[in-house]
Amino acid sequence: MTQRPDKKTDIEDLLRRLKLADAGYAWMEFLDHYAQLIMDAAAQIECKHDRIDECFLYVCEKLNEDGFRRLLRFNVAGAAKFRTWLSTVVFNLCVDWHRREYGRVRLLPAIAALPRFDQSVYQLVLAQGTSKEFCYQKLRSEFP
Question: Are 31 and 37 spatial neighbours (Cβ–Cβ below 8 Å)?
Answer without folding.
Answer: no
